[in-house]
Design goal:
about 375 residues, alpha/beta, Metallo-beta-lactamase, Chain A, seven-stranded mixed β-sheet, six-stranded mixed β-sheet, about 20% helix, about 25% strand, binds zinc ion
């Protein structure tokens, strides 16, 4: 992993808003190799992002979160997965409802980008007019599990009405330049928004890099990782000595103390292998969650270099720890660097380990 070279500015940038696209749950053991005791369930929001290129008068969305009509429209294979995982599916409103409520006409959305075909990202494109095109990653249209959709194609994991009447654009990265090791397409042609091929989680996975000012970016990771502990800390973004996140105190008064980083050494799954807890991610992704674990690990390693840059704010699709840090749509997060969201949010995921930390503290006092 090395320092990242970010693309030079062509004086254009985009506005970025984060939209809460519903909430679901997944057992942590489905996602990472050695869950920290007490961190048994990922209770995860599903983020969608509105990207506005004002100079070109264009609006696109990166992901749509969950769909309200999932019981009626999702293929039986998906319904079975939801039932088998005993997953919560909590969707108050489709992304389209939220856009309309904020006065944004759906006809003004030029395209929806699917980071990949999973139900917690695809939302309900059928609610958009046919003028909204759908952008998918390489291999989407040639893979029988993704295209055409269900019920036209009984093997598909995607509802077919997403495609009706609209242009489906499958990206081709074969001649693409590279940003931070990912093949990259300059989507608007003005350096304001890049779509990146980030293989591993699925055959069709893509991430994005949104320029929010001349030198600042938001990296939209999608499902490159499902928990920040899969990509933090690293040698380039090491754990601070004192972590200013709410953690339990000895007397069980919740959320008051500042945690000395050394407490985290004991609970780090890499401790047995002699890994440095200050520079080694807490979690490793597992093969259950990825069609290719080596590709997924390579994608995570590339993302770590972005994440370590003070010029880049990384947001994966399901980062619960940012829920109470970021202002949500219709507000924007374009000024993330001035607002300090990155430093406010970077270590808040450690709150997920509070049960394991409380155990240590209880042992210390006995
Ligand atoms: Zn996924
Ligand atoms: Zn996901």
């Amino acid at each position: 992993m090395s320092n990242i070279f970010l693309p030079l500015s062509k004086e254009q940038s985009v506005e970025v808003s984060i939209i809460h696209g519903g909430r679901t749950t997944v057992p942590t053991k489905y996602v990472v190799q050695t869950p920290i005791p007490g961190h048994d369930l990922l209770d995860i929001p599903c983020y969608s992002f509105l990207i506005e290129n004002k100079s070109q008068n264009k609006r696109i969305l990166y992901d749509l979160g969950l769909m309200k009509a999932w019981k009626e429209k999702q293929p039986p294979a998906i319904l079975n997965q939801i039932e088998a995982a005993n997953a919560v599916m909590d969707i108050k409103s489709d992304v389209t409802d939220q856009l309309v409520d904020a006065g944004i006409q759906l006809g003004s959305i030029n395209a929806v980008i699917w980071s990949h075909h999973h139900v917690d990202h695809t939302g309900d494109p059928s609610l958009f007019p046919p003028s909204t095109s759908l952008i998918v990653g390489p291999g989407f249209k040639t893979n029988n599990t993704t295209f055409p959709g269900y019920p036209k194609n009984p093997d598909s994991l995607v509802a077919d009405d997403a495609f009706h009447g609209r242009e489906i654009i499958e990206l081709d990265f074969s001649t693409a330049a590279s940003i931070g090791g990912y093949p990259a397409i300059d989507y608007f042609g003005d350096g304001s928004f890049y779509i990146l091929q980030s293989k591993g989680h699925t055959h069709d996975h893509i991430s994005a890099l949104a320029r929010t000012s001349n030198s600042k970016f938001i990296f939209l990771g999608g499902d490159v990782a499902h928990h920040p502990g899969e990509y933090r800390p690293t040698e380039l973004l090491s754990l601070p000595n004192d972590i200013e996140v709410p953690l339990p105190t000895n007397d069980n008064t919740p959320f008051l103390s500042v945690c000395p980083a050394s407490v985290l050494e004991t609970i780090h799954p890499g401790k047995k292998e002699g890994k440095d807890y200050r520079t080694t991610p807490f979690y490793q992704s597992n093969s259950l969650m990825n069609v290719s674990l080596p590709d997924a690990e390579a994608s995570i390693e590339k993302m770590q270099a972005f994440d370590a840059s003070t010029d880049v704010f990384t947001i994966i699709a399901h980062d619960t720890s940012l829920l109470d840090v970021l202002p949500f749509f219709p507000k924007t997060i374009t000024d993330w660097d001035k607002a300090g969201y990155k430093s406010l949010g970077a270590w808040r995921f450690l709150k997920d380990f509070e049960k394991a930390i409380a155990e240590i503290k209880t042992e210390d006092t006995q």
